[in-house]
Amino acid sequence: AARKTGVDLSQRQIEAARLRLPDAKFVVAAGEDFDLGGETFDVILVSDTLNLTSPTTTSRDREILKRLELLAKVNAREFTEKLFASGSLLTLKPAPQAITTDCKEYRENGKNFSVAQIEEIGFDQFWKRKDELLAALEIYRAARGYYFSSLLITDVTTQSSLLLVVGDERFVKCIDHPRVEPGIYEMRDVVSRKKQLLPYLTQCLRKTEKGVKG
Predict the structure, then answer these.
(1) Strand 179-181 to strand 184-187: parallel, antiparallel, or no bridges (unpaired)?
(2) What pLDDT does residue 122 have?
């Protein structure tokens, strides 16, 4: 069997990857500083593209993926679905761990908040556990004194997400995406935390501040 090695700067991302590919080797390090130790590799892939659906995807990514499909004789979409299905965080982890596996803290306008993301195949597991996820998110937020905490559940097959938000009521009211249920919002075509969700949340923060001053 082919040997696989994964490198990421985030310990949480590495933990999530180990759940999905338990037989692979994973190292917490910056890719540009990783010491190969004399090893050689048939294929090296630098990926932050969510199977080419992320806003960060380039034409070069698409070109490389086509070549890799031919070399490995693997269908990329089928591989992606198997990868995420085999390591669903919502299936494998209790809610308090699932919401913090890939969670980052931010500070804007004097407010601390957290933004987490879970990538899944479909939303079936989410709907089964939505209540405990919301409860765990609020406990996490309150324990750290965050202005708000959010969790983006992304369906990698439809390129859409659901956003869970708990926290200051004035902030929550600024969210203008369709509300599916209390604390849960539909985020069509949103898959990137950094490029799409974070700018939107900071915009909502500014609206909240203007409302308070007004």
Answers:
(1) antiparallel
(2) 87
DSSP-assigned states of every residue in the chain: ----EEEES-HHHHHHHHHH-TTSEEEES-GGG---TT---S------STTTTSTT--HHHHHHHHHHHHHHT--HHHHHHHHHHHT-HHHHS-HHHHTTTTEEEEEETTEEEEEEEEEESSSHHHHHHHHHHHHHHHHHHHHHT-SEEEEEEEETTTTEEEEEEEE-HHHHHT--SPEEETTEEEETT---IIIIIHHHHHHHHHHHHHHHH-
Q: Which pLDDT belongs to residue 67?
A: 82
Is there a contact between 130 and 181 (Cβ–Cβ < 8 Å)?
A: yes
Candidates 156, 160, 191, 6; CA nearest to 81 is: 156
Global confidence as pTM: 0.69
Q: How far apart are CA 72 and CA 67, in angstroms?
A: 9
Can you tell me the mean pLDDT for 128-144?
A: 97
